[in-house]
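Response to reviewer comment R2.3. The reviewers asked that we include at least one raw input/output pair. We reproduce the pair for ABC-2 type transport system ATP-binding protein here without editing.
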Amino acid sequence: MSPIVSVKNLRKSYAGGFEALKSVNLDIEEGEILALLGPNGAGKTTLISTICGITVPTSGTVTVGGHDTQTAFRAARNLIGLVPQEINLEPFETVMNTVSFSRGLFGKKKDDAFVEDILRKLSLHDKKDNKIMMLSGGMKRRVLIAKALSHEPKVLFLDEPTAGVDVELRKDMWDVVADLKASGVTIILTTHYIEEAEAIADRVGVINKGEILLVQDKSDLMRQLGQKQLKIELNEATSRIPDALSAYDLSLSDDGLMLTYSYDTKAERTGITTLLNELQAAGLQLKDLQTAQSSLEDIFVGLVKEKA
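Raw output as returned:
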């Protein structure tokens, strides 16, 4: 099956010579949630704007549902819903009219029942007659999603959807995204929140300085790049790691009471059994052991540093 969004050799440069996107290649499969991670200025918003046809690329192609965004803009754009970072809504208009108006902009027939169903799914139905100015920040973001869904798009772009939203509302938004995926919508979100990608994405893309560093299945990424660590708490502090243990990837805490052993989860042998035996032989008495898996945040920081 062809990807619903296909980006080939996409470049965007400006008059001063700055390259916001550098030969980006990206395929997005129908029905998936792709989280695009990157620091400020990485090119996330430029990439989304270019896919949506808002920004004209310097070179390269983008197709959405098989439609080229440059030569068949209207057909491509009709398949796309975009939720921007900025909350830019008419404060004196009602929620219902705001969403209905967006539907009309895409040439869709008036359908109050459809709009009300969207508002229900986004927990906005009880506020459908409220003016936008009366809503909280979190509710306004839900209105932005309702507007983006009003013309029944197949692909939804969420640009920093939970920026400035408290933790509880953020988790509510994750539930909304999961429900949208279940209804068949393909979702691409940019985020600064690593836990957001870890919680809801199927695949994770990392972008930095206009380049895609990788796009990978989230669980594969955790398995392949994630290191595991064994934390060894000692009964008594030691001032140094014994020479007999120099072959192991060990680090010692400042207080001398904790040894940390990093090992590859993919390796045939972890070396833990041998290490523990040699620790005892070196006269170090263990008090406690615990393991920890590297988080997506550790992986992301490592990738960005490698390419810096």
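The domain at 5-223 is CATH 3.40.50.300 (Rossmann fold). The two ends are 36 Å apart (CA to CA). Further pairs are available on request from the corresponding author.
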